[in-house]
Amino acid sequence: MPETYALIIGSGFEQFAAGDADLLSETRFGLPSSAINRVEIEGHGVLSIARHGVPHTIPPHAINYRANLLALQEAGATAIIALNTVGVASDIRDSGEIAVPDQILDYTWGRQHTIYDGDGGEIDHIDFTEPFSPELRAGLLDAAKLADIDCYDGGVYAATQGPRLESAAEVDRLERDGADYIGMTAMPEAALARELGLPYACLALIVNRAAGRGDTPIHEDVEASTEAARSLAESLLRQFFRHQAIV
Fold first, then answer.
1. Are 174 and 158 in contact (CB under 8 A)?
2. C-beta of residue 60 within 8 angstroms of C-beta of residue 111
3. pLDDT single digits (tens) 173-232
4. Is residue 211 part of a domain?
5. Is the torsion defined by CA of 81, 13, 184, 189 positive or negative?
6. Hey, is 104 helix, strand or coil?
7. Each residue's pLDDT tens digit, 73-122
8. Integer Cα distance of 125 and 120 in angstroms
């Protein structure tokens, strides 16, 4: 049975946020960030949800991650591709490039991070050794090769609380911990997807050098680099779904 893919998108991907039908239904965890849309990408039907709402008004720590993931599953999603903008702390990549991370560090707090909240009378200690689906990661990387796109295979995503950016000293600590990319939204998203049995992979858009790592002020770096990273991500996704439409 073919997969039904869903995209979790941020700002700048409006073309993936408006489709044939809006599905906004309350889950047992409350309302999701936005309506779920059904869009067609290269002949393949794809679900999408706007992580920060439409318009972009929900900060990372206030997102109802549980409702978002459950709403996608209830709409029929069987695999999730998350688009996450990040800064880069190491020399693994540079601004304006993209990557598919393979590991994660979680520095968030106070978020509803599990579906096992004690109300359902069950619990599962999920295996999170590989936080991102190897098969889905491979599919994205194969699409990058087919489209001749430079997309880095691997790296560690550090999820911070936000919404503020990090200090230079915090970035030093994160890099010592092994972080390559720094974002605010891949956790608890990745863990919740695992709890729900949904393969999940992150396509990271690197939009700035992290604090203390670049010669350009961060917001100037973001403004100058976002379009390049977004263009690469869009091309990769179109190649990915072009392949899915013919297999």
1. yes
2. no
3. 999 999 999 999 999 999 999 999 999 999 999 999 999 998 899 999 999 999 999 999
4. yes
5. negative
6. strand
7. 999 999 999 999 999 999 999 999 999 999 999 999 999 999 998 776 78
8. 15
Asked if the structure places residue 178 within a domain, the reply is yes
* Closest-CA residue to 210 (of 236, 246, 177, 244): 177
CA gap 163, 31 in Å, rounded: 21
Cβ partners under 8 Å of residue 38, min gap 6: 19, 20, 21, 23, 45, 46, 47
**Alpha helices in 147-177, H assignment, sequence order:** 168-176
| CATH value at residue 22 | 3.40.50.1580
Q: Are 9 and 34 in contact (CB under 8 A)?
A: no
Count of the separate structural domains present in the chain: 1
Residue 121, in any domain of the structure: no
Alpha helices, DSSP H, located in 75-185? 134-146, 168-176
pTM for this prediction: 0.93
Most distant pair of Cα atoms in the chain: their distance: 53
Secondary structure percentages of the chain, helix, strand, coil, to 5: 30, 25, 45
DSSP assignments along 69-101, one per residue:
HHHHHHTT--EEEEEEEEEE-SSS--TT-EEE-
